[in-house]
């Protein structure tokens, strides 16, 4: 116990001296910027050591003597830190103990703990051990956001089936909650899929932009909140009509990967990793450009946009299908997307309306992500579920009235 106390005193003394040295630097001095960058690097190294020690204490189980329910709970209570941060530190430390290359990168300061956190979920993936050193070397100097995208890209390319399952499981965590604040306001919090977020951003940005010059003095955030309220109120009044203003996404991937449904692409606007399966679904009802680049990545040709379902075709399908074609769905046409029964246009499929049907967002996802299949033609469709349950869908009858 005395040696541990001595070590603790030594660390505390050294840290106190370091803090005091930083305190002597004036915020407006010429050396402040240099100290700032070095200080951040030292903080990162300290957080790496914190994670390493946290994992060691967790494994030793000395925390159990306190009666705590978990190491994370003990650490959070003892150090007055958030439970989530305590848990993340322990998980990072455990990953560092398991992956030597990660420990070296974090302890040397080459990889910040925030960026290293992106590696933690992938440690148990098939094939990770074989590429860990090279993958981590590529991440050196990356921001946490860039590191997360890099690891996500690797997972999507290396194990597409596992990645699809991970995304499906993650989608099960979607939620939206309203909690009154007690002062006439309500806290809105939740987690949504990237696709839902894209649609929300597009709709709210469009509505907010229309009000940009109204002289109200509202901030962009306030205009988006008001736009969301306007959109909901319009729906409740029955005034929402089917828009055809789809999110604009630029995804870069090779033609081979695109046509073989391997790998993933990256949304140039947001940096989100988009899997081939997600691209498959998006391209059912989209404007598609084909860009041709040379070996250096320079664009040689950017083709005209071609919509896979034209506005006139969508109207024709609206008259024919009258809404989502799933037999247990009552979503109207304005909440639907065009789904190709065969390969979509970019992969050689036809764009005739006889090759497309309307599906709502939920059932469109079910076909692309949840193991459902759809066969037949618009007159008679058969939906087959993962459990081989079959549901038939026939064209709705169009009522006719005899002239008086």
Query: What order do the SSEs take from the amino end to the carboxyl end, as H and E?
Result: HHHHHHHHHEEHHEHEEHEEEEHEEHEEE
Mean pLDDT: 80
Strand order of the largest sheet: 3-4-5
Q: How many independent structural domains?
A: 2
Helix fraction bin? 40-55%
Hey, roughly how much beta strand do the residues contain?
5-15%
Radius of gyration: 27 Å
Structural class of the secondary elements? alpha+beta
Helix-strand blueprint:
Elements: H1 2-23, H2 32-60, H3 71-79, H4 83-98, H5 100-108, H6 113-116, H7 128-139, H8 144-158, H9 160-171, E1 175-180, E2 186-191, H10 194-210, H11 220-236, E3 251-252, H12 255-260, E4 264-267, E5 273-275, H13 276-282, E6 287-288, E7 291-293, E8 299-302, E9 306-307, H14 311-321, E10 336-340, E11 356-360, H15 361-369, E12 373-377, E13 380-384, E14 390-394
Helix pairs in contact: 2-4, 2-5, 3-4, 4-5, 5-7, 8-9, 10-11, 13-15
Question: Would you give an account of this structure?
Answer:
The protein has a 3-stranded antiparallel beta sheet. A 3-stranded antiparallel beta sheet has the order 12-13-14, with helices on one face. The protein is globular and about 85 Å long. The protein has 2 domains: 14-158, no CATH class; 251-404, no CATH class. 48% of the residues lie in helices and 14% in strands. It starts with a helix and ends in a 10-residue tail after the last strand. The protein is of the alpha+beta class. Residues 344-349 and 399-404 have low confidence and may be disordered. The chain is built from 15 helices and 14 strands.
């Amino acid at each position: 116990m005395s040696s541990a106390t001595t070590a603790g005193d030594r660390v505390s003394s050294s840290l106190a001296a370091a803090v005091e040295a930083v305190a002597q630097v004036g915020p407006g001095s010429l050396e402040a910027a240099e100290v700032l960058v070095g200080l951040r690097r030292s903080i990162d190294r300290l957080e790496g050591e914190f994670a390493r020690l946290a994992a060691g204490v967790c494994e030793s189980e000395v925390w159990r003597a306190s009666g705590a329910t978990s190491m994370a709970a003990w650490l959070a209570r003892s150090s007055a830190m958030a439970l989530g941060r305590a848990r993340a530190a322990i998980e990072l430390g455990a990953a560092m103990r398991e992956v030597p290359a990660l420990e070296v990168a974090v302890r040397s300061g080459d990889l910040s703990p925030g960026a290293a956190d992106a590696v933690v979920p992938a440690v148990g993936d098939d094939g990770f051990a074989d590429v860990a050193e090279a993958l981590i070397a590529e991440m050196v100097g990356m921001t946490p956001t860039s590191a997360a995208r890099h690891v996500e890209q690797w997972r999507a390319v290396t194990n597409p089936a596992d990645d699809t399952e991970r995304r499906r499981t993650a989608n099960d965590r979607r939620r939206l909650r309203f909690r009154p604040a007690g002062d006439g306001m309500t806290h809105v919090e939740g987690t949504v899929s990237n696709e839902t977020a894209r649609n929300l951003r597009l709709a709210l940005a469009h509505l907010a932009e229309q009000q940009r010059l109204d002289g109200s003095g509202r901030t962009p955030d306030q205009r988006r909140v008001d736009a969301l309220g306007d959109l909901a109120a319009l729906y409740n009044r029955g005034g929402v009509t089917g828009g055809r203003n789809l999110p604009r996404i630029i995804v870069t991937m090779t033609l081979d990967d695109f046509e073989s449904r391997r790998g993933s692409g990256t949304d140039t606007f947001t940096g989100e990793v988009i899997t081939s399966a997600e691209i498959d679904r998006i391209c059912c009802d989209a404007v598609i450009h084909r860009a041709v680049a040379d070996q250096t990545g320079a664009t040689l040709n950017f083709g005209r946009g071609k919509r896979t379902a034209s506005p006139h075709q969508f109207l024709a399908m609206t008259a024919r299908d009258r809404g989502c074609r799933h037999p247990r769905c009552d979503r109207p046409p304005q909440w639907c997307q065009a789904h190709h029964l065969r390969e979509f246009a970019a992969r050689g499929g036809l764009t005739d309306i006889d090759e497309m049907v309307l599906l709502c967002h939920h059932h469109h996802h079910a076909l692309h992500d949840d193991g459902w299949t759809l066969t037949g033609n618009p007159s008679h469709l058969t939906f087959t579920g993962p459990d081989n349950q079959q549901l038939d869908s026939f064209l709705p009858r169009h009522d006719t009235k005899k002239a008086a």
